[in-house]
UniProtKB/TrEMBL annotation:
Transmembrane region(s): none
A Pfam family per the record: GST_N_2
Protein source organism: Novosphingobium kunmingense
Higher taxonomy: Bacteria, Pseudomonadati, Pseudomonadota, Alphaproteobacteria, Sphingomonadales
Domain GST N-terminal: 1-87
UniProt domain GST C-terminal: residue ranges: 90-214
The protein's name in its UniProt record: GST-like protein
Gene3D superfamilies recorded: 1.20.1050.10, Glutaredoxin
């Protein structure tokens, strides 16, 4: 059994989709990040960075005590190594899959997150920040489009954790102004993955994005802002004032 500490965001759906694709038993433990559920000392022991998702594997492949894993890319690779699934056996294809996984967690994800923040949450518009992150996100989308014009999936012919890492964020692309119709290869890839039964289970009602996480012009209360971006988020890390 795996405990999935989950918030209904693209990062959370990466892991719920992977668990469904791999047929692993898991227990969903949902957190409301607007309400600060992730800022407790108990969760600090699972993820010292206080971000979601995280997992606790009660039957780790190397034996011993339950094993916690945080950071979505690390979780995906851990699960692929545990099951021998969704990461190619061929060394060249495996390397390609891990490159695209890293590209998502180091580039596409953070740039999309910053574009979303300055478009949706900034108390007042900051044109430079909006333009900087939106243009970089658009550039990265073209990188993705070009790759999917060369191969069926990110790693080549096989669906892999690289596709899982990227796909949920593209399902929320409209929130930051990305029109998938501009990217036909990406749209073809997106639709093919959306039709997979395990993907549908991994984003079913209890794992779907709630409306309050999808607001185009979000207005947070002072408490919600503190939980997401402010003092309470920062002070949750031991040693921080």
């Amino acid at each position: 059994m795996i405990d999935l500490h989950f918030s209904a965001t693209p990062n959370g759906q990466k892991i719920s989709i992977a668990l469904e694709e791999m047929g692993l038993d898991y227990r969903l433990i949902s957190y409301d990040i607007f309400e600060g559920d992730h800022l407790t000392p108990e969760f600090d022991r699972i993820n010292p960075n206080h971000k979601l998702p995280a997992i606790v594997d009660h039957d780790p492949p190397f034996g011993g005590e339950p094993h916690a894993v945080f950071e979505s890319g690390a979780i995906l690779q851990y699960l692929a190594d545990k099951t021998g699934m969704l990461l190619p056996d061929d060394p060249r294809a495996r390397s390609v899959a891990l490159q695209w996984l890293t590209w998502q967690v180091a580039g596409l994800g953070p740039m999309g997150g910053q574009a979303s923040h300055f478009r949706r949450y900034a108390p007042e518009p900051i044109p430079y920040a909006i333009e900087r992150y939106s243009r970089e996100l658009d550039r990265l989308m073209q990188v993705l489009e070009n790759r999917l014009g060369q191969a069926e999936y990110l790693a080549g012919a096989e669906f892999s954790i690289a596709d899982i890492a990227i796909w949920p964020g593209r399902s929320a692309a409209g929130v930051v102004g990305i029109d998938l119709a501009r990217f036909p290869n990406t749209h073809r890839w997106y639709q093919a993955i959306a039709a997979r039964p395990a993907v549908q289970r991994g984003r079913s009602a209890d794992k779907a994005f709630p409306d309050k996480y999808m607001q185009l012009n979000a207005r947070l209360s002072s408490a919600q802002w503190s939980n997401m971006f402010g003092d309470r988020m920062h002070s949750a890390v031991p040693g921080r004032p």
